[in-house]
Design goal:
Layout: E1 2-7, E2 12-19, E3 24-31, H1 40-62, E4 71-77, H2 81-98, E5 102-106, H3 107-119, E6 125-129, E7 134-140, E8 143-149, H4 155-166, H5 172-180, E9 192-193, E10 196-197, H6 200-209, H7 215-241, E11 245-249, H8 256-268, E12 272-274, H9 278-281, H10 285-297
Helix pairs in contact: 1-2, 3-10, 4-5, 4-6, 5-7, 6-7, 7-8
This protein binds adenosine monophosphate and magnesium ion.
Length: 323
C-alpha cells in the first residue's frame, strides 16, 4: 500500500509519500516566508497557491502518478482552521476525483509515529516541542496520553515571539540557539505547575530583560530556563510511567542544548534516548502518510462527513487500534 499524506496545520505545507513497509518515497515541503507571526488566512492562501506544485514535487520525487496511490491522508488537526481546511479540501478532492480512500489523522500522533518508525523506539515518552505544541506524551491503555503540556503558548511560539520582539530573526529558534552560545545565564521565571508548563510569563520577562542585559545573555537564560522546565516534567513522566525510552519530536527538538539536557536526564534514569533525523522532526507530509497507513490498516474508515477539520483535536482523543 502507498499513501500520500498532506500536512498543512500551520505555516508549512508538506506532501509525503510512504509505503506500508515504512519506506519514505518522497517528503516535499514548502515553508511560507515569515516576517511577522503566522497570519492564518495568509498561511492558508500560501498553501492553496502552492498545493499543486508541492503535490507534483512529491509525486515526481517518488516517480509515481496518482494512479499508484492507494490512500490519501491529511492532518485533520490540531492547527489553524483556515490552513487545515486547505489541506482537507485538497485531500477530499484528490480522494473523490481519483476514487482513493481518504483518512484524517491527528498531527501530534503523526510526529510520534514517524519518530518511532525511524528511530526504532518502541514505547517512548515523547517530548513534542514545536511552534504550536508542547506536550509530554506516552502510550497507556489504548491511547497516547498527555502527561504534561503547556497551559498557554507553545515553547517554540515563546522563542519565536521573543526573537521577533528582540528583532533578531524569524523563526527565532535557530537564532536564539546561536546567540545563547555566547551568552551568560540570567534567571527568568521558571513556571511548572504540577506536570504542566507555562511560557507566557517567561516571554514577557525575557523581553523586559533586554533593557538591562545583552541579548546573548537573555537568549541563554531563556533557553536554560524553558528547557529545564520541560526536562523536569519529562523526568517526572519517566518516573511515573517507568518507560525506558525518551524520544524527541517537533522543530524545537532540533536544538542541540535541549537534546543534551534531555539525553543527560534520560541516561541518568537508565532510559534510552532517541531523536529522529532533522527532516522529520518538524512538520512534514511523510508523518501524516505513515500515521494514515497505520490508522487505515487497523481497520479505521472515515466517511466524507467525518473529515471535517478539528482545530483543537487532542492527542488523547484518538483510540489507537494499531498498537
Ligand atoms: P514545527 O512547528 O515542529 O515545524 O517547528 C517549528 C518551530 O521549531 C519554530 O518555533 C522554530 O523556532 C523552532 N526551531 C527550529 N529550529 C530550532 C532550534 N535550533 N532551536 C530551537 N527551536 C527551533
Ligand atoms: Mg508539529
Amino acid at each position: 500500500m502507498i499513501c500520500l499524506g498532506i500536512e498543512g496545520t500551520a505555516e508549512k505545507l508538506g506532501v509525503g509519500i510512504v509505503t506500508d513497509g515504512g519506506e519514505i518515497l518522497a517528503n516535499a515541503i514548502k515553508h511560507m516566508p515569515l516576517v511577522t507571526g503566522i497570519h492564518p488566512r495568509e498561511a492558508a492562501q500560501h498553501h492553496a497557491d502552492n498545493m499543486g506544485a508541492v503535490l507534483e514535487q512529491a509525486l515526481d520525487g517518488a516517480n509515481l502518478d496518482l494512479g499508484a496511490i492507494d490512500l490519501i491522508a491529511f492532518s485533520q488537526g490540531p492547527g489553524l482552521g483556515p490552513c487545515l481546511r486547505v489541506a482537507a479540501v485538497s485531500a477530499r478532492t484528490l480522494s473523490l476525483v481519483n476514487d482513493i480512500p481518504l483518512i484524517g489523522v491527528n498531527h501530534c500522533i503523526g510526529h510520534i509515529e514517524i519518530g518511532m518508525l525511524l528511530t526504532g523506539a518502541r514505547d517512548p515518552i515523547t517530548l513534542y516541542v514545536s511552534g504550536g505544541n508542547t506536550q509530554i506524551i506516552a502510550f497507556d491503555s489504548g491511547r497516547y496520553r498527555v502527561f504534561g503540556e503547556t497551559l498557554d503558548i507553545a515553547i517554540g511560539n515563546c522563542i519565536d515571539q521573543f526573537a521577533r520582539s528582540a528583532g533578531i530573526g524569524n523563526p527565532g529558534g535557530p537564532v536564539v540557539e546561536k546567540l545563547a552560545l555566547d551568552g551568560k545565564y540570567i534567571p527568568l521565571p521558571y513556571v511548572v505547575k504540577g506536570m504542566d508548563l507555562s511560557f507566557s510569563g517567561i516571554y514577557t520577562a525575557a523581553v523586559n530583560a533586554l533593557a538591562k542585559h545583552r541579548v546573548e545573555d537573555v537568549c541563554c537564560g531563556l533557553q536554560e530556563t524553558a528547557f529545564a522546565m520541560i526536562t523536569e516534567v519529562t523526568e517526572r513522566a519517566i518516573a511515573h510511567t517507568e518507560k525506558r525510552e525518551v524520544m524527541l519530536a517537533g522543530g524545537v527538538a532540533i536544538n542541540k542544548r535541549l537534546q543534551e539536557m534531555i539525553k543527560t536526564m534520560a541516561h541518568e534514569h537508565g532510559a534510552e534516548f532517541f531523536i529522529p533525523q532533522k527532516d522529520v522532526l518538524g512538520d512534514n507530509g511523510a508523518m501524516i502518510a505513515w500515521a494514515g497507513i497505520l490508522r487505515y490498516k487497523s481497520g479505521e474508515r472515515q466517511s466524507l462527513e467525518d473529515t471535517a477539520v478539528r482545530q483543537r483535536f487532542r492527542t488523547d482523543e484518538v483510540d489507537v487500534k494499531w498498537r
